[in-house]
Design goal:
Shape: globular
Oligomer: single chain
Number of strands: 0
Largest sheet: none
Radius of gyration: 22 Å
Number of helices: 20
Distance between the termini: 20 Å
Helix content: 55-70%
Structural class: mainly alpha
């Protein structure tokens, strides 16, 4: 894959009057101060100048270093990372004030194609995000308008049909990723689900109906996210957050905040990711089950680890494990069933990898790989790539390449743009060993797998 030079990074380095070696030293010094072993050299900086990808944690440290040098705030997006074009204009958050407004907004979103060209970059104004979160935190439920006159009467059978459809689409997403099924799901959501919300139903049915609709809306967000359309995914998530206010579903609303934290973390917006994860913990406290609270704490750990806060991440990981020990399946909603021991191990191994805790990262990642159900192809692919990166950290090059090859052999996961980034990150990390036959063979395997993926899509 040919790359273009990163003109934005080059321009900022020129303005800061800093050399490749100078930037590398400042980055490693800052990483050492945070307790992170970065391993950045002038060669790494040159690769980034040439257009190579970078890990979010590394990009965040680079942005912090250049911010200090220039005396103003700089983001990874400003430096040309996680998107092909710079965008300083924040994406406005449309957080509806009334139920008809959120239904209208969701109807509009369901007409947008996830595969439409979109930048892998998203700037959200802190004030807008804080306002939306605060609105959710302090809101009282809108309440269900039961038994109102309407042309259609909705019953529990209709709700079960929505949940069955959501379950089917979720399994497709877990297996194939890459927004698979998004087009069909948004059509179903717009023409079959949203009209029911404006129909007649009892109080009990109405609560269940809005809950099911929120689950479908969340899945639309995830499939857009996995396609790489972060703007659309974010708008679905904030709209779904508002939808949970209708019935006062604090646990699912907190779940949406963890999704927003996950996305912010992926895009390198660590401060927002930490705030959103902590909001999910506070918002869910007293309303969420221990399994859900374990999930929320794990997302806080992910955000803190990516930001280089080893102490904070360790505390959050311990909290997640303690919550999970108290988990009781009988009290959990169906949408939380995926949050298994393997899922928690997968979250923790990401944290340990980001913190460069080699032995523990390999241990947790191996456990996650061994215990993940193969039907969750994308999750298994992520865990294998984290295991490969952790093995590489431990100096086990051959083992790392073998593990990464197994992940790519999984095939289906490659449709996910997120998984593809895991793979390209690993390729950058082993590029120093390009002369090694195993590394060269891995590069060929990735090239062939992506070529097959393109052929299958035609």
């Amino acid at each position: 894959m040919s790359r273009e030079p990163n003109a934005q990074l080059i321009a900022f380095m020129s303005e800061a009057k800093i050399s490749n070696k100078g930037l590398a030293k400042r980055m490693t010094d800052e990483a050492d101060r945070r307790g992170i072993e970065l391993g950045t050299t002038h060669v790494s900086v040159q690769r980034w100048r040439n257009g190579s990808s970078i890990r979010p944690q590394t990009a965040a440290i680079m942005a912090d270093v250049l911010s200090a040098k220039l005396g103003r705030g700089i983001t990874p997006g400003d430096l040309g990372f996680f998107g092909n074009a710079q965008s300083n204009a924040p994406e406005p958050i449309s957080y509806p004030g009334a139920v008809p407004d959120v239904l209208s907004l969701l109807d509009g979103l369901a007409q947008e194609r996830a595969e439409a060209p979109a930048s892998d970059q998203l700037v959200i104004a802190e004030g807008d995000l804080s306002s939306a979160v605060l609105s959710w935190m302090i809101a009282r439920p809108d309440g269900i308008q039961a038994d109102r006159p309407a042309h259609q009467r909705v019953g529990m059978r209709d709700v079960r049909a929505i949940r069955d459809a959501a379950s089917m689409f979720m399994q497709l997403d877990f297996k194939y990723g890459g927004g698979h099924g998004h087009k069909a799901l948004r059509h179903y959501f717009r023409h079959e689900v949203l009209p029911l919300l404006d129909s007649s139903y009892s109080q009990k049915v109405g609560v269940a109906l809005f809950s099911a609709a929120a689950e479908v809306s969340q899945l639309l967000a995830w499939t857009a996210y996995d396609t790489g359309n972060h703007r659309l995914a974010h708008r679905y998530l904030t709209s779904t957050l508002r939808l949970t206010q209708v019935t006062g579903d604090r646990m699912f609303g907190a779940r949406i905040l963890t999704n927003l934290s996950h996305q912010a973390n992926y895009l390198g917006n660590h401060a927002q990711a930490i705030q959103l994860a902590r909001a999910s913990l506070e918002g869910g406290r007293g309303a969420a089950t221990p399994r859900a609270m374990s999930l929320f704490a794990a997302h806080e750990a992910r955000a803190l680890a990516n930001a280089g806060d080893a102490r904070g991440a360790g505390r959050a990981m311990n909290e997640a494990e303690r919550y999970f020990e108290r988990a009781d399946t009988s009290t959990d909603p169906e949408w939380l069933s995926y949050m298994s021991a393997a899922e928690l191990e997968g979250e923790i191994c990401h944290c340990l990898r980001d913190l460069k805790q080699r032995r523990e990262a390999v241990e947790y990642a191996q456990r996650a790989v061994d215990s993940t159900d193969p039907k969750y192809a994308r999750t298994l692919g992520f865990c294998r790539m984290v295991l490969a990166q952790s093995q590489l950290l431990s100096g086990e090059l051959e083992a790392a390449v073998t593990t990464a090859s197994l992940a790519v052999d999984g095939g289906d996961a490659l449709q996910s743009t997120r998984f593809q980034r895991y793979v390209t990150d690993f390729q950058e990390e082993v590029r120093a060993h390009a002369a090694n036959p195993a590394v060269a063979a891995f590069d060929d395997k990735v090239h062939d797998a992506l070529a097959r993926l393109e052929e299958d899509g035609e």
